[in-house]
Amino acid sequence: MRMAPQSYFIIVCFIIIFACCPLCLVSSHSDDGLDKFIESKRYQVTKHRSSLKIVNVDDFGAKGDASDDSEAFQKAWKEACSSDRAAFVVPSGRVYHLKPNSFLGPCRPHLSIMIYGTIKASPHRSDYKKNTNEWLVFQNLTDVVVGGGGTINGNGRKWWLHSCKINKAFPCTHAPTAVTFDGCKNMKVDNLKIRNAQQMHLSFKDCNNIKAYNLRVIAPQTSPNTDGIHITDTKNIEIYSSVVRTGDDCVSIVSGSKNIKIMDLTCGPGHGISIGSLGKGNSVDHVSNVLVDGARLSGTTNGVRIKTWQGGSGYARNIRFQNIVMHNVSNPIIIDQNYCDKNGPCPEQKSAVQVEDIIYRNIKGTSASEEAIKLDCSKSIPCRRILMQNIDLRRLGEGDSDASCVHVAGLLERDTIFPQC
Q1: Residue 30: exposed, middle, or buried by beta-carbon count in 10 A (0-12, 13-18, 19+)?
Q2: Backbone phi, then psi, for 216, in 5-degree steps?
Q3: Alpha-carbon distance 145 to 307, whole Å?
Q4: How far apart are CA 93 and CA 151, in angstroms?
Q5: Annotated catalytic residue within 143, 248, 249, 376
Q6: 418 vs 395: CA distance, rounded Å
Q7: Cis peptide before 369, with omega less than 30 degrees from 0?
Q8: Which residues, in sequence order, are CB contacts of 265 under 8 Å at separation 6+?
Q9: d(CA 360, CA 244)
């Protein structure tokens, strides 16, 4: 089924308007870097309709009738990727089922990926025998815009039921990440819904210069290991105005990542905003220059967390959490340099990931536990240069909240701090 002529006309007019009037787009975002990126990299289109090539998956045999549409998507991708100024279009009003698929670049300039309908994962776990780690992978893409307002559904229920965290009779194995952007540069991901991932929802891996806006990442609170947005080995990434409600970390940031900005984030349920874990298996890990500004967390097991394993090395430094409101959060502020996620105790080790130059500023709300602030740092390599300013975290219900700060070298408290170490 081909896209209706009216739909072609609307898409073409939409692009032409931005080409003729870039200020229409610029006015909606105040970030100068983003404005320049969009103007110079994405919307350098001509005023002629013929300049836009629409590649509709329906035109390549996609049915949207619960059968596998992988072959049609790959044919459409090959055409779009090899064409200048192409729009790879997934139409609205249908649900397209896909097995694991990789959409590989590099592609011709000015490619758009517009998802208006729904893409749903195959319900058959046997389809993932070749790769149980990933479902949809977009790899080696540069100067690409992804959007459309549609839904990517990982169809994860069967995977959750086979998780060792739900049923201890099953072995602990990986389940697929729903959407992975791998080795991508100068990319904008805007206005997408990602739901019910098999495991992680959205991963940015080895990427550079990413703008992610207006994302809605949703899964049940009981779904295991379903991190919302996972950032690894990625530099210069901004996540704005997004909602993440899952069964694990709303945002997780791990080794090799730096220059990260997260603003206007709604988080919960889930496990909060986490840096780490770092240093597992005596690894050398590095995370630096992270800003979380303007977050709202509700009903999460952690608020803002830094977690590292004993025995590792490297650093987590220059990290700022500010202007955050929490409600009913079990561990609002936590640094855990003795993180241990396995059965039985973890042996004490001398080596540790250095945690330093951390700022907590303007953080208010309620704690579901007595210990609202917990800085559990390494005995051999203590946390260094921790600043707390204008903190007010009250116990939800009866009793006062408390703080525990162990092995902290250089804790500076300014203005109102409650509770105090």
Answers
A1: exposed
A2: -125, 115
A3: 33
A4: 11
A5: 248
A6: 10
A7: no
A8: 239, 242, 243, 244, 250, 251, 273, 292, 294, 295, 296
A9: 22
Distances from the Cα of 178 to the Cαs of 135, 142, 171, 196, 288, in angstroms? 5, 21, 21, 9, 26
Start-to-end C-alpha separation, the chain: 65
| 59 counts as catalytic | no
Active site residue 286: no
pLDDT for 372 equals: 98
Tell how many helices (H) and how many strands (E) occur in the chain: 5, 28
Alpha-helical regions (H) of 116-235: 157-161
Burial of 22 (0-12, 13-18, 19+ CB in 10 A): middle
Does the structure show a pLDDT above 70 at 238?
yes
Interval 330-370: pLDDT, tens: 999 999 999 998 777 888 899 999 999 999 999 999 999 99
Catalytic: which of 230, 271, 285, 357? 271
Q: What angle do CA 236, 201, 336 make, to 5 degrees?
A: 70
* Cβ neighbours of residue 78 closer than 8 Å, sequence gap 6 or more: none
